[in-house]
What does this fold into?
Amino acid sequence: MFVGKKTLRCERGQALVEFGLSLPLLLLLLLGGIEISNMINHYLVLTHLTREGANLTSRKTDPTTALNAIISGAKPTLCENGVGCTTNVGQWNVIYSAVGPVNPAGCLPPSATDPDCDYVIVNQITRGSLGKLSRIGSTGDPVTSAEIPKIDDVAPGQTFQIIEVFYDYGPSTLTPLEGFMKSALPDDFYVRTIFTDVSS
It folds into this structure.
C-alpha cells in the first residue's frame, strides 16, 4: 500500500500536537513526584532527629551536647551556623523538655487508693527561631496524660526526655510548584519523641 508524503506529514503533525498537549501533564507529574519525595525525606530526617535526641538525653547525655549533635547531623534540612549549608534557623525549632515528678520521694504506684505522681517540666531548651512553643508546656508547667498519654501508667518517679521539632516546609526551588502545592501542604511539620531515662 502506498502512503503519500501528505499523509506522513499529517501523522507527524498529529504526533507533535499530542506530545505538546501531554508534555505539561508529564512535567507536572515528574515535578510533583520529586517534591513529594523531598517532603518525605525531610519528614524522615526530622523523625530520626527526634528519636536520636530523645535516646541520647535518656542516656544522661548533656541536653545541649545532644542538641548540637542532632542538629549538626540533620544538615542541610536543619542548619544553624551556615557551615556547609544555608542558614535556615527561621524555618525550624527543636525543643528539648525534661519532665520529672514534683516530689520523687512521694510518688506512689498508681492504684485505686494512692494518688498519682504529679509531673512538671523541669528543664527546657529551645533552638532555632521559627517561634513555635512546645506543645507540652514550658518550664514549671504541670504535665498530664493529655500531653503525654499513659503518663500515669509508668513506674513511679520516672523522668521523661522529650524532643519536639517544628519545621516550616516549603517546596523546593528545583520544582517551581510553590504556589500550586503550598495550599496542599501542612503549615508546619511537627514530630515528637518521648523516652524515659535509661536506668544504669
Remarks:
- The chain has a mean pLDDT of 81.
